[in-house]
Amino acid sequence: MAAEAGKVDPMHQFTIEPLFGTEGWQLAGYHIPFTNSALWMALASLLMLVFVAGGMKRQLVPGRWQMAVESFTGFIDGLLAANVGPAGKKYVPYMFTLFMFILFANFLGLLPLGVVGLHAFTFTSHFSATGVLAVVTFAIVIIVGFAKHGFHFFSLFVPHGTPLVMIPLIFCVELISFLVRPFSLGLRLFVAMMAGHVLLEVLSSFVISTGNANIGLFAIAGLPSFVLMVGICALELLVAGIQAYVFALLTCVYLNDAENLH
Amino acid sequence: MPQIAQLGEFYASQIFWLVVFFGLAFFIVGRGMVPKVMDTVAHRDKQISDDFAAAEQARREADVQEEAWRARENARRAEAQGVIAEARSKAALATEGRLAETQRGLDAKIAAAEARIAEALAAASAEIENVATDAARDVVARVAGIAVDDGAARVAVKEKLAHG
């Protein structure tokens, strides 16, 4: 973590490193080592699998675990029903996977594994990962939109009641706002996760360097930073949940555009 | 910023493994497990609503039965009232009959008694008449020395008794 002795590089935590000697892995000419990022993707998937599998007892009167899983599926189902309507039912598997994948990724990245010598990695703090999720969502929106409405899908860019003379301008504005969606979707998650982790790292560097300097400096700068870190950790847990929710919610809104136009 | 600095080196790895693990999660968890969980929830919701419907049905049935029972009970009560009224009127009639009969018996007894009284009265008055006749004949025989026959004496006595 320390780039130089006594100095903390807040960006070092985002470094991707190939693991288990897989640097040389290639697929069709592309370099695909199994990195720490891929490991945490695997862990997020695995955790989701374990979590949902634990709720598969299918009891009529659910236990705690089954209740938890059912409340998550119910939450996604409700989100789609509220934003897309009855047509949203078929997106539940995708939305559930998306939401839980991001949620577990965000929470796993906040685990205090540094205490036991491991390093948690938040792959949602990489736009190369969030971008893929955003592009997948955007691709589904476009495919569903054109498959369902054909060229009528372009009417999405002309809101009802637009004066005739304004149509070309509004069309361009709406088109741009539509095309920006995958970027805003992917970047929002990436920026929120990265910012929180950088903030925690910067505050921790204050604690460490003032602690190493002298007790007086530690008392006026290090200790308040530490207290602030505790609060920001709680805030980050909230942000982890909110960002997963926002990603899922916006996906719902976009899917609604594709399903129902407006 | 490793996100940008390492982009060229690792973008393919990031995309590839994300697609792999997200795809696995989607097909195993999203497509395989989530529908079953939702089925369980839907099944439970259906069972609950069915149970509610059954309970509602049972309640309505109970209401109907209670209504029938009430009607039956009312009919029985009315019937019982009728029986009671009939018995009462029968009893009243019987009482009346017995009273009338007793009254008749009493009337007959009173009439007989009155007849006996009248008879006794007549007998008594005849006896008085006889005695008076005998006495009058004796008195006349003794005082006037005339032997009055029984018929004449009786006429005289009767005349006297009638006039007081």
TrEMBL record, chain A:
The keyword Cell membrane applies. GO terms for cellular component: plasma membrane; proton-transporting ATP synthase complex. It comes from Novosphingobium chloroacetimidivorans. NCBIfam families: ATP_synt_6_or_A, PRK05815.2-4. This is ATP synthase subunit a. CDD domains: ATP-synt_Fo_a_6. It comes from the Bacteria. Belongs to the ATPase A chain family. The chain crosses the membrane at residues 37-55, 67-85, 91-115, 127-147, 153-180, 187-209, 215-239. InterPro entries: ATP_synth_F0_asu, ATP_synth_F0_asu_bact/mt, F0_ATP_A_sf. GO terms for molecular function: proton-transporting ATP synthase activity, rotational mechanism. Keywords: ATP synthesis, Cell membrane, CF(0), Hydrogen ion transport, Ion transport, Membrane, Transmembrane, Transmembrane helix, Transport. It is found in: Cell membrane; Membrane. It holds the Pfam family ATP-synt_A.
UniProtKB/TrEMBL annotation, chain B:
The keyword rRNA processing does not apply. Pfam families: ATP-synt_B. GO terms for biological process: proton motive force-driven ATP synthesis. Signal peptide: none annotated. Keywords: ATP synthesis, CF(0), Hydrogen ion transport, Ion transport, Membrane, Transmembrane, Transmembrane helix, Transport. One of its GO terms (cellular component) is proton-transporting ATP synthase complex. Its main location: membrane. GO terms for molecular function: proton transmembrane transporter activity. It is a single-pass membrane protein. Belongs to the ATPase B chain family. Component of the F(0) channel, it forms part of the peripheral stalk, linking F(1) to F(0). The b'-subunit is a diverged and duplicated form of b found in plants and photosynthetic bacteria. This is F-type H+-transporting ATPase subunit b. It comes from Novosphingobium chloroacetimidivorans. The lineage of its organism: Bacteria, Pseudomonadati, Pseudomonadota, Alphaproteobacteria, Sphingomonadales.
